[in-house]
């Protein structure tokens, strides 16, 4: 158990050492004894604090989440509230000075009350507000409580490991999935939006004169008798669209502030297209690609299929795979070790340093307690796959790889479109949500695939990701590995200088990006592709919200 001195304890210790030093210089035993007594009192206070906090922990000081669920669903950009309960079974009250969350960096969390007191044999209700600016499966791993033991000169951090899962869906699916379907809503009934075409059906299209080859059963005898001309009934059938949504999930599209990266907006755009066509009763397929095909789901309809598409947009765009993650096996092992230690019954005290095989075995044994059950991510060995799966199961973030993969993804887009051309039923609408090919070598196979789609009478729409929101203020200041501010923004003057330099750099990148996007749009339009831009619907961070809003 670690103890940290408060500011008062630090001042008293400095004063005691100073008094003892003055006594030694003056050769006054009384002054030296006085300073020594103060230091002895500090040591005694530390021992008392250690005993009191140990007593609280032994009595059953714990934190529990309210409610039976350990996973909640929410939409990107929304804020949810989770209730927790801190219980103190000791006969003495416990005063805490800080309560902070241990959670994924993809979540923005505030806690109320952040300081207070847990009464003896009492309970304290804690409200945890979670703002979710990015899709994914994220974890709230627990709470850290900094307790003041008697006489209040030392603080002891107590960590409560109680995993909780927050699944953040794209905004359109978060609104579409809970809505009623079927019955009176008629969202999936046969009278939904169809495309009309001549053929066998139940709806009368028109009465027309009989032509050679028309079957006798279609003759309208009464109408023919009234007009004196042989007439036949022409019916129409409902022909629904077969829609494909193709999404580029390259790792460099995650670059940008949380919630304002190009891929944040692209995922919402793909989800909006899916929900729009699913609501009309059309069949929707989804292809997610990067340097490889991340997901390829054949077109279907219905609520269950919508659930499947929403889950794929969350999982297939993640970065836990070794080829998409900036963490190597050693980095992953460190994160697993830090998270697993409070969950293990022995605190991993019997685990030798560097024994990754045993760590993977222990992590796999604890994984069933995790809030999520993801498939095994890609890894260079079974051991690495086990460790990466542990991170994904507990919602521990894995930063995206620093190297770009647009070179491979451009060629992969051509393969995906070629596969869609060969699939059955034939597509009638194709929505591509991706940057245009960036290299001349990539353009030819992509354009050939687009021409083949056009020959099959498929309507093609290309939505270009928005880079502007991620290059506009406010920017996130650089931080160290522990989350503290970097030296570049250590004081006010450096912060102002950094913001000025960031503004100039962002403007230069923005100009180059707009030029590249305009060139790509011109190439696509020459091929008859309808080009649209994703609407930038970002959410404000809690600290950047309007102070006048209530």
From TrEMBL:
Source organism, top-level taxon: Bacteria
A Pfam family assignment: DUF58
The keyword Nucleotide-binding is assigned to this record: no
Residues annotated as transmembrane: 9-26, 32-53
Start and end residues of each DUF58 domain: 206-330
The UniProt record lists the keyword Flavoprotein: no
InterPro entries linked to this entry: DUF58
Keywords: Membrane, Transmembrane, Transmembrane helix
Annotated protein name in UniProt: DUF58 domain-containing protein
């Amino acid at each position: 158990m670690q103890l940290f001195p408060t500011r008062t304890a630090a001042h008293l210790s400095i004063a005691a050492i100073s008094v003892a030093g003055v006594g030694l210089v003056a050769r006054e035993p009384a002054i030296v004894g006085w300073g020594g007594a103060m230091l002895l009192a500090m040591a005694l206070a530390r021992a008392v604090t250690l005993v009191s906090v140990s007593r609280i922990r032994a009595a059953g000081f714990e934190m529990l989440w309210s409610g039976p669920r350990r996973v909640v669903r929410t939409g990107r950009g929304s804020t949810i509230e989770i209730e927790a309960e801190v219980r103190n079974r000791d006969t003495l009250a416990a005063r805490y000075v800080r309560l902070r969350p241990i959670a994924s960096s993809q979540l923005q969390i505030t806690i109320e009350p952040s300081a207070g007191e847990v009464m003896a044999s009492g309970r304290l209700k804690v409200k945890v507000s979670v703002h979710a600016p990015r899709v994914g499966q994220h974890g709230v791993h627990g709470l850290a409580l900094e307790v003041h033991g008697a006489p209040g000169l030392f603080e002891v951090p107590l960590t409560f490991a109680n995993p909780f899962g927050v699944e953040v869906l794209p905004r359109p699916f978060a609104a579409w999935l809970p809505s009623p379907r079927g019955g009176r809503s008629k969202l999936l009934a046969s009278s939904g939006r169809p495309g009309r075409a001549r053929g066998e059906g139940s709806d009368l299209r028109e009465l027309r004169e009989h032509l050679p080859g028309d079957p006798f059963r279609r003759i309208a005898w009464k109408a023919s008798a009234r007009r004196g001309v042989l007439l036949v009934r022409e019916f129409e059938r409902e022909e629904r669209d077969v829609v494909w949504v193709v999404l580029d999930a390259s790792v460099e599209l995650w670059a940008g502030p949380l919630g304002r990266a190009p891929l944040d907006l692209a995922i919402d755009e793909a989800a909006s297209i899916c929900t729009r066509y699913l609501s009309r009763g059309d069949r929707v397929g989804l292809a997610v690609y990067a340097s490889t095909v991340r997901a390829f789901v054949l077109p279907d309809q219905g609520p269950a299929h919508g659930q499947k598409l929403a889950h794929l947009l969350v999982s297939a765009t993640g970065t836990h795979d070794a080829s998409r993650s900036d963490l190597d096996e050693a980095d992953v092992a460190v994160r697993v070790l830090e998270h697993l230690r409070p969950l293990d019954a022995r605190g991993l005290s019997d685990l030798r340093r560097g024994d990754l095989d045993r760590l993977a075995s222990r992590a796999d044994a604890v994984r069933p307690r995790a809030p999520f059950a993801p498939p095994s991510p890609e890894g260079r060995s079974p051991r690495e796959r086990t460790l990466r799966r542990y991170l994904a199961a507990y919602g521990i973030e894995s930063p995206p790889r620093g190297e770009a993969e647009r070179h491979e993804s451009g060629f992969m887009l051509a393969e995906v479109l070629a596969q869609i051309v060969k699939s059955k039923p034939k597509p009638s609408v194709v929505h591509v949500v991706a940057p245009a090919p960036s290299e001349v070598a990539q353009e030819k196979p992509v354009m050939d695939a687009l021409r083949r789609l056009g020959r099959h009478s498929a309507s093609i729409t290309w939505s270009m990701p928005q880079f502007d929101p991620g290059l506009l203020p406010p920017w996130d200041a650089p931080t160290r590995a522990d989350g503290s501010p970097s030296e570049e923004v250590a004081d006010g003057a450096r912060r102002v200088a950094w913001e000025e330099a960031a503004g100039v750099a962002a403007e230069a990148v923005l100009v180059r990006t707009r030029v590249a996007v305009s060139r790509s749009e011109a190439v696509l339009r020459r091929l008859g592709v309808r080009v649209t831009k994703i609407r930038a619907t970002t959410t404000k961070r809690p600290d950047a919200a309007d102070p006048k809003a209530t």
